[in-house]
Specification:
The structure is a single chain. This protein is of the alpha+beta class and 157 residues long. The protein has a single domain, classed as Gcn5-related N-acetyltransferase (GNAT) (Aminopeptidase). 26% of the residues lie in helices and 32% in strands. Strands 1-2-3-4-5-7-6 form a 7-stranded mixed β-sheet, with helices on both faces. A hairpin with a 2-residue loop joins strand 2 and strand 3. The longest helix has 17 residues.
Length: 157
């Protein structure tokens, strides 16, 4: 297996846009019903000091991504987690998530939250193994599709 490198990337770069397009295509194939949509992430939300967007690289190929954004004092949210299907099972999701947790700590977060979906059992498993627990819906997800699964993790420093 090739080494995995995680690096910050601009959200509007061609690499980031390609990974997000692949994520959106996968989500659209899993969630076809009305109301099951992709929630936004803006460039300003992941600027230095407010959040981060990272890309996982394997043998000089981008194979995954994820973001973290501060949503309130002490709370950051994981967004746009994705690993290319051909690179799954190699620990890339764990590496991206660990990088996002570190970025959240640097932003002063004591709690990390996220939303995923019932039709993403591999993502739910990753988050549970990483110490996340299910929580009631929060923020923009309170009125989201019934397929939403919200989770949270207390961060230690």
């Amino acid at each position: 297996m090739s080494a995995i490198a995680i690096a910050r990337e601009r959200l509007d770069s061609p690499v980031a846009l390609g990974l997000i397009a692949a994520l959106n295509a996968e989500l659209s194939s899993r969630y076809r019903e009305p109301g099951a949509n992709h929630f936004r992430l803006d460039l300003d939300e992941v600027r230095p000091g407010r959040g981060a967007f990272v890309v996982a690289w394997r043998a000089s190929e981008p194979v995954g991504c994820g973001a973290v954004r501060r949503i309130s004092p002490g709370i950051c949210e994981v967004k746009r987690m994705y690993v290319d299907p051909g690179a799954r099972g190699l620990g890339i999701g764990r590496a991206v998530l660990a990088s996002l947790e570190a970025a959240a700590r640097q932003l002063g977060a004591a709690r990390l939250v996220l939303e995923t979906g019932t039709r993403q059992p591999e993502a739910i498993g990753l988050y549970l193994r990483a110490g996340f627990v299910r929580t009631p819906p929060y923020g923009e997800y309170v009125r989201s599709a019934p397929t939403s699964v919200c989770m949270a993790k207390q961060l230690t420093f």
